[in-house]
Amino acid sequence: MKSLLLIFAKNPDLGKVKTRLAKSIGEQKALKIYQILLKHTLEIASSVNAEKKVLFSHRLEKHPIIEKHKFEQAIQIGKDLGERMSNAVKIGFEKGYQKIVIIGADLFDLQTTDIEKAFENLESYETCIGPTEDGGYYLLGLSFWEKSLFENKDWGTDQVLVQTLKDLSSKSVLLLDEKNDIDTVDDLKKSPKLEALLNNL
After folding, report:
1. Which of 76, 103, 107, 188 reaches 20 to 30 Å from 179, CA-CA?
2. CB of 17 within 8 A of CB of 8?
3. Domains, the chain, ranges and CATH?
4. What stretches of the chain adopt beta strand conformation (E)?
5. Roughly how many angstroms between the first and final C-alpha of the chain, as a whole number?
6. Which residues are within 8 A (CB) of 201 and not within 5 positions of it... i.e. 6 or more apart?
7. Could you report the average pLDDT of every consecutive run of 10 residues in the chain (201 residues)?
8. Which value, to the nearest 10 degrees, does the dihedral of the CA atoms of residues 42, 48, 89, 161 take?
């Protein structure tokens, strides 16, 4: 079965990434955190047995990992996160992929095995979701496209997972391990390895 990994990322621009975190640690440190997270995400994605496509928010990026592993790149299309994900997933299925997994670039705890587990379980389940501690999700694995999954969601709030699961009530769903995404200084404190990397820069 053809598999596609979609990596949603923001362009690493000062003042445009990790804005909630920046309020506590400053824009320069917030940018460095995001650069570390993006590099980590691309590194763990590189060994996943699937096609990889990185979707940036505004422009294509020259990044050594993307170039080394020949990831496909594109610009996100849509007015909000839901519409942008919906369009990317729809295009993927139209191109003949049968299993699609979406991840962001906000988790230092995410590993290659987490992504591979999602793809493997899409053989038995219609969808896989990796929940975050703050009520969202860090991974969405699908064997189908359904527009409603990406509509009427309070993106960036603690209601996203609940709202998404409600739309999946008629589908078979596997919940993966809960993880911590890095949005605030409290999230950063829960990831001492990431905090140490920042301090060593």
Report:
1. 76
2. no
3. 3-200 (3.90.550.10)
4. 3-9, 51-56, 72-75, 99-103, 127-131, 137-142, 173-175
5. 42
6. 32
7. 96 95 93 95 97 97 95 97 97 98 95 98 98 96 96 94 96 96 88 79 60
8. -80
